[in-house]
Please model this.
Amino acid sequence: MRYPELRYMGSKKRLLPWIFEALNALDFESAMDPFSGTGSVAYLLKAMDRRVVSSDFLRFSSIVARATVENNTHHLDGRTIKRLLTRPKDADDFIIKTFKGIFYTPDDLRFLDRLSHNIRGLENLHQQALAYAALFRSCLKRQPRGVFTISGDLSHYDDGRRDLKLSIEEHFLEQIEVYNATVFDNGRRNQALQTDLFDLPNRAIDLVYLDPPYVPRSDDNCYIKRYHFLEGLSSYWQDQPVDMTTKVRKIAKKHTPFSYRRTAIDAFDRMFARFSKSIIALSYSSNGYPDLVELERLMRRHKRDVRVFEKPHTYHFGTHGGVSRAKTTEYLIVGR
Model:
């Protein structure tokens, strides 16, 4: 099954065949992905007929997993789509008031206000998640570089791509079909959560796939910085106040100890201890910190048998002509 790719920092979508090959050789019935991101690895595990628990500390990521991993049977049918596209009399205007002149056209922003209202009115949480997932991907496609760090007049990014010509509503109608096509029943009761790794409920899990944020050697790895609009949109900015002093109307950054050199090693050690009774499969990159030697050392404190799989990889971030391409070695460190 083809999983819809989100333009997302650190996405493992193009590494899925390699990850499948490594994981398929292991003996496990249940799996957890507590840094689910785009949901592609959790979805792979579901397609492998395992019982999957997916989680992320970002709300919008957890909603995508609810739509594609937890959801086994529900689709957006014609009646529901019609309901989503109606013009409600009592829709709020927060988005157009807050983001006019920053992201998208006025028509796009008004559509987002209306659609957000209608999505929140759906009673079925899996249909609601499907609609949100379709909307998130629509917003990313409409945004020239797929991130929300640039604003204002973005016409110089217009390279003739179809994605930049379609309205968000046109994108949304296409993405409904895309996400409806992801729905299947693997015969297992899967779950999607929104929580921090260290707040996850204790439960017996055979395998844990770990893909924490990489501590970068330059720039930063802040997901809220790049995707704050989607995170805010996922709750219509309830309990996520907008910083009106910022050019792109940011929301507060979420802290994770994996993002800082001074706390990362301790976080890895605590994470490995937390899942010491499960098979651990850690994804990491040669351009991150700690390095491979340190990661192996830390994992060997909790696992007797540690094996490293390596694959050359190039991260493509963005779609514009000058897109940065970071050549790295991708690691999958498996501890049993």
The first strand starts at residue 30 and ends at 33. Confidence is low (pLDDT under 50) at residues 318-324. The radius of gyration is 20 Å.
